Task: inverse folding
């Protein structure tokens, strides 16, 4: 395990989060959402159809969960700042090596540096299976962000999948090539979770249609 794994995962997930946030949140979405419980703040709003008062004909619309969006964004900013501080501390005694690189990504990608014991332990903890930048937590955050942005709208699943893929491609460009293994595994985990979301959405739709037919 290395600091490379930590920083590359950060690049892929953070870029995707911020790019998607800027492109998908409506301008009129406000941070002043005062709904008090998680159930009340699910982002789902029910609007009765004008044609019928029955539950089966109710129109379901979706709104961004601005509270969760801003919570995830603030958390990502804090953890990214901590990560940058960790890397800068590691680089402080290796100015000559860093000076030969064009940027921080080239420096890290080169692998031409040493890591002190404390930094190594912190990096290992961060990218461990249960670590903040590990595959599970990172992929879960990306899916949570997608759901918050769309309010859980199943029709937006593929759109969000494409946004994530574009973010990952941009992270590879920033990194200067293929990202390390942990980032690739995170990518696969996110794809699997999008697949499950799409499958569950189809089942829900099929069940609702079946119930309407039997009524």
Result:
């Amino acid at each position: 395990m290395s600091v490379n794994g930590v920083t590359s995962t950060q690049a892929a997930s953070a870029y995707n989060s911020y790019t998607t946030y800027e492109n998908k949140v409506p301008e009129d979405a406000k941070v002043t959402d005062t709904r008090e419980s998680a159930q009340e703040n699910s982002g789902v709003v029910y609007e009765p159809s004008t044609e019928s008062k029955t539950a089966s004909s109710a129109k379901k619309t979706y709104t961004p969960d601005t509270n969760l969006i801003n919570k995830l964004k603030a958390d990502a900013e804090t953890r990214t700042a901590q990560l940058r501080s960790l890397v800068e501390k590691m680089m402080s005694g290796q100015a000559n090596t860093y000076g030969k690189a064009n940027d921080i990504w080239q420096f890290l990608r080169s692998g031409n540096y040493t890591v002190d014991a404390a930094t190594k332990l912190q990096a290992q903890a961060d990218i461990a299976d249960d670590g903040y930048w590990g595959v599970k937590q990172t992929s879960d955050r990306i899916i949570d962000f997608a759901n918050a942005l769309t309010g859980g709208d199943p029709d937006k699943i593929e759109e969000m999948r494409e946004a994530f893929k574009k973010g990952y491609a941009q992270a590879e460009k920033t990194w200067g090539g293929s990202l390390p293994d942990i980032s690739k595994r995170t990518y696969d985990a996110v794809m699997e979770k999008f697949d499950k979301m799409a499958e569950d959405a189809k089942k829900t739709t099929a069940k609702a249609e079946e119930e309407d037919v039997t009524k």
Observations:
- Helices lie at 3-24, 66-91, 95-99, 104-110, 117-126, 135-150, 157-175, 181-214.
